[in-house]
Amino acid sequence: MAQSAALLTRIVASSVSATVQAGKIIRDVLNKGGLNIVEKGKNDLQTEADRCAQRCIITSLSRQFPNITIIGEEEPSSCEVPSEWIITEADQEVLQLKLPAHLEDVNPKDVCVWVDPLDGTTEYTQGLVEHVTVLVGVAIGKTAIGGVIHQPYYKNDESGTFIENGRTLWGIDGAGFGGFTPKSPPEGRRIIATTRSHSDSIVQSAIKSLEPDEVTRVGGAGHKVILLLEGKAHAYVFASRGCKRWDTCAPEAILHAIGGVLTDLHGERYSYNRETTYVNMRGILATAPGQPHQWYLSRIPDEVKQKLQ
């Protein structure tokens, strides 16, 4: 079945399996206590878990799909990858998906996969493990089409206990989604999700302009978009250049798959082809399905937009 499925379907299905293994690596590193933290820049940490999880994902995908482009957040490593990290399985539910005709026969050279092996590293090092996600986004041409978000540490809402292997959410825009049940945010209120660790006066100005009833500050772009998917926030705004393409490709694809929107603060979608710049220079605005994206854009002050040209 796997080989008869379309290339896009196989990449997303394999990414689901690879992110589950990456999540196991992330838990193992934390349990052993050897994080080996490296400070790449201001508020930009890297741990042993980031490095190992990326090697797992990129090796697993590149061996199965040698002709696609894969870009990871961390520097490539020449270290030997343990055989148990190399995943060849593919998620059967994803493989059953029926794609729109224009996605059925994709040229591998038009595919760019963006990998953030551990989104929310700062929170991970602080023990706020529920903020952590593993992100694999699949772009066709310039557009984010497929996405996988894995939560290595996911608590059951009812029991409050961690699920053994975490949770994996996935989506292909125009084809379907799985791993979660979309919910609408509460009516009559406006809950805005934003950064926990990268705030400044510009970020605050953008939030204030939306007149929120509540502001939820959490780590990781993946975690913030999950709040939109599950009806726990109406919009996610980040008026800064702190985000990169590997932070937003997967969340954008899944959000669009359920009818939401993710753009920059000028209302344009980001380009995810392999020639593009990595930094999301014009900030982030994401809205849950049914939310008036244009209204949110119109509220962002001009001076904020000018800072993010």
Automatic annotation (TrEMBL):
It comes from the Eukaryota. It is an enzyme of class 3 (hydrolase). GO terms for biological process: phosphatidylinositol phosphate biosynthetic process. Its cofactor is Mg(2+). Mg(2+) binds at E73, D116, L118, D119, D247. Gene3D superfamilies: 3.40.190.80, Fructose-1,6-Bisphosphatase, subunit A, domain 1. The keyword Electron transport does not apply. This is 3'(2'),5'-bisphosphate nucleotidase 1. The keyword Transferase does not apply. GO terms for molecular function: 3'(2'),5'-bisphosphate nucleotidase activity; inositol-1,4-bisphosphate 1-phosphatase activity; metal ion binding.
